[in-house]
Amino acid sequence: MASVTVRISDKARQELRDLAQQSGESMQKVLEKAIDLYRRQMFFEQLNASVHRLQKEHPDLWQQELEERRLWEGTLADGLENDAYQTK
């Protein structure tokens, strides 16, 4: 695995070290997990912003989305999820 040096503050390095010690994982693993969590957070923030923009700028399209969701909710109780992936 390739490695790269990244400069971080002394405070961040100490916090990273503390988290690694508390979790029993390497500093690299803790940093990778933090990056993944941040990526996920950004994804959902962008998703929420898009939904809010759709609601505000295109209320008719938002109503269509809600109606489609209502239609799909009816499939949740059809019992198919119990049989679809069962192997015999």
Structure explained in plain terms:
The relative contact order is 0.05. The longest helix has 31 residues, at 27-57. It contains four helices and no strands. Helix 1 crosses helix 2. It has helices at 10-23, 27-57, 59-73, 80-83. It is mostly helical.
How would the blueprint of this fold be written?
Elements: H1 10-23, H2 27-57, H3 59-73, H4 80-83
- The helicity comes to over 70%
- Number of strand segments: 0
Biggest sheet architecture: none
**How much β-strand is present in the residues?**
under 5%
The structural class is: mainly alpha
C-alpha Rg, in Å? 22 Å
Q: Tell me, briefly, the overall form.
A: elongated
- Amino-to-carboxy terminus distance: 42 Å
- Point out poorly predicted stretches: none
Helical element count? 4
**Quaternary structure:** single chain
List the secondary-structure elements in sequence, H or E. HHHH
On the 0 to 100 scale, the average pLDDT is 91
What would a concise description of this structure say?
It contains four helices and no strands. The protein has helices spanning 10-23, 27-57, 59-73, 80-83.
